[in-house]
Description:
The protein is 40% helix and 22% strand. The protein has helices at 4-10, 18-24, 73-81, 95-119; strands at residues 31-34, 44-51, 57-61, 67-72, 85-87. β3 (57-61) and β4 (67-72) form a beta hairpin.
Amino acid sequence: AGSPVDAGEENPEPEPDEFDRKVAGIGEGTWVRLAPETGEGEPMVCKLVWRSKYTGTMVFVDGQGNKAAQLKEEALAEMFRQGRAGLLKDAQAPLIDRAIRKMMRVLNAEIVGLRLKMAD
Length: 120
């Protein structure tokens, strides 16, 4: 009988590939496209809103904020491998998200401007 260390050597963890690294780099607020498993129907556009660093669970919501998907990191990486998932560029993100980000940039710039004036 082998020791637990020996047993681990029989089935080593596979090295992370580009898809595992892509999933690891996805942060909260990132929009993704998820195609149905059957390949039929329209892909979902959803946003990552929560991720567990302990279990690798990722929760996505749709444009209305409703839960759209809950996936493990490994499952999402496999979807990327199969071409069933993709990251959305900023221009493809829903309009409301782009508008909110623009508004936040403007407000931050105004706050910085006020602080600079107050410092003079």
